[in-house]
UniProtKB/TrEMBL annotation, chain B:
GO terms for molecular function: NADH dehydrogenase (quinone) (non-electrogenic) activity; quinone binding. Belongs to the complex I subunit 4L family. It is a multi-pass membrane protein. This is NADH-quinone oxidoreductase subunit K. Keywords: Cell inner membrane, Cell membrane, Membrane, NAD, Oxidoreductase, Quinone, Translocase, Transmembrane, Transmembrane helix, Transport, Ubiquinone. InterPro entries: NADH_UbQ_OxRdtase_chain4L/K, NUOK/Mnh_C1-like. The gene is nuoK. It is found in: Cell membrane; Membrane. It is an enzyme of class 7 (translocase). GO terms for biological process: ATP synthesis coupled electron transport. GO terms for cellular component: NADH dehydrogenase complex; plasma membrane. NDH-1 shuttles electrons from NADH, via FMN and iron-sulfur (Fe-S) centers, to quinones in the respiratory chain. The immediate electron acceptor for the enzyme in this species is believed to be ubiquinone. Couples the redox reaction to proton translocation (for every two electrons transferred, four hydrogen ions are translocated across the cytoplasmic membrane), and thus conserves the redox energy in a proton gradient. The chain crosses the membrane at residues 6-26, 33-56, 62-85. Its EC number is 7.1.1.-.
Length: 190, 103
């Protein structure tokens, strides 16, 4: 029962990813990808990682994909007829390189006898947390600093800068029209 | 462990190849390029979790959690950069951003 479920979920993951990367519409691609991530989360659960499965649903499908959706809808990118689409010139090198990578991986894995299926046990929250905060405390600190830096960087990039002033005109003592008076700087609209 | 470890690795390899194809095909669209990177990182996470289940240790799952945190930081920065570039040139075509000159 459980191996069959694994193979069904693997097929769902691969097909959803395949549909996502061949989809012209970015929003549809995101939705396919969320499907793929849900199937992958169930695979994680079956492999004895309930914590990672929960985080996969919460962070990946819940936060990161919604972030993508926000940006796509904010920038109004959901018009595939306006965007440039990959032609046949873009497809064949990618397919060739992907096929080579896949063939190398499959040859490497298939050259060995499949391992004996061992009865696995689920790693619960307790053991996971003990390992995470006991053995890898430094990693937690580094990740927290990295998230802080990402926050600062995103704030810096998202800040609206005022447009640079035009060059000084000739004559008039290099004074711009209106200079010397009280200037009301308007907020620039995008 | 319900299936042989090799089958988990094969699934991870297939997903990684799909992500690589996505990055190479959609290299003119920044959003689809980031999606391809997401798929590749998910394949790496699947390999880590499969290894954790194979040897019965929690270390692989810790690594997959670290990958997840890294991905969220990377995606937030990259999407902020996409918004910034779109504000400058009104496009997400990666070929438009091939110059270092500030225009």
């Amino acid at each position: 029962m459980e191996p069959a479920l694994f193979y069904i979920l693997a097929a769902v993951t691969v097909i959803a990813t395949l549909l996502a990367i061949t989809e012209k519409h970015a929003v549809h691609a995101i939705v396919y990808l969320v499907t793929s991530f849900f199937a992958l989360a169930v695979i994680f659960f079956m492999l004895g990682a309930p914590v990672v499965a929960a985080f996969e649903v919460i962070i990946y499908a819940g936060a990161i994909m919604v972030l993508f959706l926000f940006v796509i809808m904010m920038l109004d990118l959901g018009h595939p007829e306006r965007a440039r689409l990959p032609g046949i010139r873009d497809w064949w090198p990618a397919l060739a390189l992907g096929a080579v990578t896949l063939a190398a991986a499959l040859t490497l894995v298939g050259s060995r006898v499949p391992a004996v299926t061992a009865a696995g046990r689920a790693i619960g929250v307790r053991e996971f947390a003990l390992t995470l905060f006991g053995n890898y405390g430094v990693a937690v600190e580094v990740v927290s600093m990295q998230l802080l830096f990402a926050l600062v960087g995103a704030l810096y990039l998202a800040k609206r800068r005022n447009p640079p002033l035009p060059p000084l005109p000739e004559g008039e003592g290099g004074r711009r029209p209106g200079e010397g008076q009280i200037m009301v700087r308007k907020e620039r609209r995008p | 462990m319900i299936v042989p470890f090799e089958h988990v690795l094969i699934l991870a390899g297939v997903l990684f190849a799909l992500g690589l194809v996505c990055v190479l095909v959609w290299r003119m669209n920044l959003i689809m390029l980031l999606i391809g990177i997401e798929v590749m990182l998910n394949a790496a996470m699947l390999a880590f979790v499969g290894g954790a289940a194979r040897w019965g240790m929690a270390d692989g799952q810790v690594f997959s959690l670290v990958i997840m945190a890294l991905t969220s930081a990377e995606v937030s920065l990259a999407l902020a950069m996409v918004v910034y570039l779109h504000r400058r040139k009104r496009t997400v075509d990666a070929d438009e951003f091939s110059t270092l000159k500030d225009t």
